[in-house]
Specification:
Blueprint: H1 3-15, H2 18-25, H3 29-43, E1 48-51, E2 54-57, H4 59-85, E3 92-98, H5 99-104, H6 106-116, E4 121-127, H7 129-137, E5 143-147, E6 155-169, E7 182-185, H8 189-201, E8 210-213, H9 216-224, E9 230-233, E10 243-247, E11 257-264, H10 272-283
Parallel strand pairs: 3-4, 3-5, 7-8
Antiparallel strand pairs: 1-2, 5-11, 6-9, 6-10, 6-11
Helix pairs in contact: 1-2, 1-4, 2-3
Amino acid sequence: MDERDIQIFQSLMETRNVTKTAQALYMTQSAITKRLHKLEEELGAPLFLRSVKGLIPAPSADAIGEEMGRLQESLQRLKTLSQYAQGRIAGHLKFGVSVNYARYTLPPLLKQYMTDYPEVRIDVTTGQSLDLFTKLQENRLSMAVLRGNFPWAGESLLLSRERVYAVTSRANEGMALSRLPYIHRQSDKPFMSRIQRWKLEQHITEAASSIQVNDISTCLSMITNGIGWSVLPKICLKDREDLVCQPLTFQDGTPFTRSTFALYREEYAQLPQVKIFLERLKGAVA
């Protein structure tokens, strides 16, 4: 068994499909099947049952799933430390990052890191913070940059705490917010609850029209065109002089803020390439 076999096993556990795994790992289906058979022979037990709808993990696969993840991390750590001993920063940097941080903050930071350390293999997954946190808990990620607060027992690093604003177009400046359609956007439940709390404290009622969007870019486009208003964090409002942005404060005087954290496992942060990346994250301005 080698690292490639572990990758095949983990991908099959996720996709339940040989074709999708072959595409993801840039291998042929026959090569995947051959290596799977060999792995099952090595372990002395069937790992997957074949069905019309795809693969079904056998009890043996479920039993070794977490151990396979730990084994892969150990192999990568050994390889990285060996390279570091020779004066090289290499190895694998795998992490998840929230959509908005990936859009507004990560690109220049990641570009500079890749320029400075070209031997490090980068594997980035973007998504909603809650989905990424689930993957972190399931050991499918070793580090994640998330928006909001999550009950994480491992290590955490506060990257930023930014103000949150009520945002309207210049054309709608001064108009009562209750008279404008509120543009709802998808976000995590705690943040949505805090928005609702602020609106209730300010006695803001919903206008007759209401709009639901999936991302900040669409929300900003709607606001820019004078369609309505929304509550947005500072991260997406840089250089937006065309918008009216009012910082929000709760009734008790507490500023309405949005935090960004890097969550990670302590042992993962010991790897040289990860330690350097965390330092770069600390230095980034959201």
